[in-house]
Amino acid sequence: MYELNKKLRKIVGYDPAAGTSKIILDANESPFNALDSFRDEIMTAVGNLKLNRYPDPYATEVVTAFAKFYGLDEKYVTAGNGSDELISIIISCFLQKGDKILTLSPDFSMYAFYSKLYETNVTIMPKDEIYNTFSVGKIIEQCNNNDIKAVIFSNPCNPTSLGIKREEIIRLIKNVFCLVVIDEAYMDFWDQSILQEIEDFDNVIVLKTLSKAFGAAGIRLGFAVSNEVVTGALRAAKSPYNTDLFSQEIGRIILSHPDEAAKNIAYIKASRERLQEELTELSRIYPCLDKVYDSQTNFVFIKTSKGLAIYEKLLERGISIRYMGIYIRITAGTREENEELLTALREILKELCDTD
Fold first, then answer.
1. In the chain, where are the structural domains located?
2. What CA–CA distance (Å, rounded) separates 327 from 111?
């Protein structure tokens, strides 16, 4: 009788957001559908695709559009089937079985998931329990004293919404001997990216995505930015046709409209700021909202002893948020979505806190 190997018997898959509610605020997606902004251009482009041919293995046109959008040289950019594929490639190919990798907690769970799947020796460093951030000095010490081969984390962080400033990230890169992978999925909502310094270092990879700020989570398109040597290795290690014709063409069109992107990002940031202000005010009224964190992302992170009850009662009203034990995470939606959420939340908190 065939049996799964040990690592597969122990594996627990990622729990993705279901996305079936009337108001979906659980997956940190954009409230804007890129298709609404560029429908005619996208439909024309899709109508001209040659589906009988394999896609460009290096996604040249969308890589060029990405590089132009961020002011980079395209020789530093690799396209992937979402950042998830790129994380998988980096961990499986840049590390070997038994190598040590460091990640943080709380952070994006797929870093540890892939590390365990590819049989690396993963160390998960807990963040400060009060402030939910970390000391760069402690990471440097941990890496250099324990033969760490790679460190990977998000900045700003999913799920805490907090960020580490550029100069601290550069201090980390300069003072460790290992590969440093910085996932900047949410950096379009902050101004501390290290993309412009990428060619100065031989040990860093920056990950980017179209899933958060660009309204294109559905096309699964991500990018890795690094020096020429690392980029060459990434391009060689990935699957030959890892991004399809549709993703490449739609991504190219989206990235070719920086004014539209800037407008949507500004709206999302304003939406998040308003949501954070309202939630902070509610936390003053209802102490069961223990802490509302200052966000540098498109979502708000909240510590609360009533997380499960809040999650379930919102779901009954057709509003989905992310429940994470003693925390909840709420994506900034449209003004109308935020208002409906806040109206429901006021009713729920009054009920829950009155029973304390």
1. 6-30+260-354, 48-256
2. 20
